[in-house]
Each structure stands twice: as C-alpha cells, then as structure tokens.
Amino acid sequence: MTAARDLPAEPFELRCVAVLAHRPAKPALSGQLGDRRNVPTRELAELYRTWARGGAGLLVTGNEMVDPAALGEPRNVALPAVPDPTARRPWARSVDGRRAAVGPAQPPRPAESAVPLTPTRAPSAVAFGNRAVRTAFAPPRAPTGDEIEAIVDRFALAARTFVEAGFAGVQLHGAHGYLISQFLSPLTNRRAGEWDRDRSRFLLELVRRVRAALGDSVPVSVKLNSADFQRSGFAEDESLRVVHALSDSGDRPALYFRRHV
C-alpha cells in the first residue's frame, strides 16, 4: 500500500527554478512594525523568525514603501532617500533570507497616513470616494512622465537594496488599489499620453527594470487582482491579458493571481 503523501511538507519548484523547502506560504500583509523613522524594528524581525519556525516555505513581506514621503500607514518600513541594506539585514537573517521575498510598493489612493489632506500621487488626479470622503482626503496629483520614470527607478532601487540585505526575492504589489493597480484600472488611469495607451506598460516596465537590477537568478513575482470589482473598472478579461503579457515578456516573472470570491 502506497504511503500517504504529506503534500504541504514537500518541496515546490517555482517557475524561475528556485525551490521552496515546503509548500505553505505567507502572503504579504502590513504589520506596521517599522519605527518612527520607518526603519525595520527588532519586533518585526522576531515576528518573521516566528513565522519561519512554523515551517512556511515562503514568507512574503508587505508594505515596504519605496518612498518615505508616500506611506500607506505611519509605521510602514520605507526606503530612505539614500538606501543602505545594513538596517534591513537583521530582518532578512531572521528567516535565513532564502525563503523571504520583499514586497516593495507605493500606497493606495488616498494614502492612509497621519496627514490625509496631503495630496498623494496617482496615475490621474481622480478624487477618491464620495463627497464626505473627499472632504477628508485631498485629490491625488498626477505625476509627470519624468516623475513616473523616477518612481520606476525607485522600485528597482528598493528591490536591489532588499536583495543586497539578504532577501531571496521580490514581489511587486499590483493589487488592492496600490499604485500598480491604479495604472491598470481605467477608473484611475485617465492619462492622455505615453503611459495611457497601454495601461499595463507601467507594470511591464517595472518588471523589466527590477529584473535588470537583480539579474536572472533572483525570483521576481507579481501580485495581481483578478478584477477590482468596480463598475467599468479593471475586469477579469483584462487581468488575463496582463497575465499573458507578463508571461510573454522576456523577464517572465512568477504570478500570484488573487481571485476574490
């Protein structure tokens, strides 16, 4: 009689040929365990050490902001203007680095920060929510083409900094209203220029530049919603087109495709 397989405990080979020791994975989530300067704390490292002891094959961090002036929450970890991998190494070492992927991001519209009236950057200056909400949050500001290029470069710099600190890979946060998903949505990307002809261009360029910064041996993945569930918004058929575009690109990132039920 064939012995029953303990499937969760078995190794799992990713598309990029990296191998996870076990199949369970912790998805990205925000812990707000940076300090007041948005530097990783001892408590954050201890949390991930505890999760690693639980046997997860992959731990994905969450809400590592690429710009300290654009936070989702006050105590996010954020990349300083001049980044140094040193402050992030204890966090990476807490899980042995080999099975932790960092998730660089820019926050949703509006930024849920301590200063909600401060305008955030979004693909287009589309106000958030109903009239009552708009009185609390300033409408976002649409960045120029040069500013978009600078944001893309910050993502690539953040990815390289965290990998140099010891993290094993990168997952770009393209879901839940974060900046990448705003570029993908026709409701929030109403630009009339080179970045609007193909709304997936921002994501594809991010992947290309992150891959160029990391080389071919470091796993790169994308977290992508199947739809944003708003009328006339980013829908499942378009999401699948983005998946195929990512798959057909020479950079070929892995995908974490989140389907809401």
Strand order in the sheet with the most strands: 3-4-7-9-10-11
Shape: globular
- Number-wise, the strands total 11
- Which structural class do the helices and strands define? alpha/beta
Average predicted confidence as pLDDT? 83
Q: Using the CA coordinates, give the radius of gyration.
A: 18 Å
H-E order: EEEHEEEHEEHHEHHEHE
Task: Provide a descriptive summary of the structure in words.
- By secondary structure, the chain is an alpha/beta fold.
- The chain is about 30% helix and about 15% strand.
- It contains seven helices and eleven strands.
- The protein has a six-stranded parallel β-sheet with strand order 3-4-7-9-10-11. Strands 6-5-8 form a three-stranded parallel β-sheet, covered by helices on one side.
- Helix 7 links the parallel strand 10 and strand 11.
- Helix 4 runs parallel beside helix 6.
- The relative contact order is 0.12.
- The C terminus is likely disordered.
What key phrases describe this protein's structure?
six-stranded parallel beta sheet, 261 residues, 11 strands, alpha/beta, 13% strand, three-stranded parallel beta sheet
How are the secondary structure elements laid out?
Elements: E1 12-13, E2 19-20, E3 25-26, H1 42-53, E4 58-60, E5 64-65, E6 77-78, H2 89-93, E7 100-102, E8 104-105, H3 131-134, H4 145-165, E9 169-174, H5 179-184, H6 201-214, E10 220-225, H7 236-248, E11 254-258
Parallel strand pairs: 3-4, 4-7, 5-6, 5-8, 7-9, 9-10, 10-11
Antiparallel strand pairs: 1-2
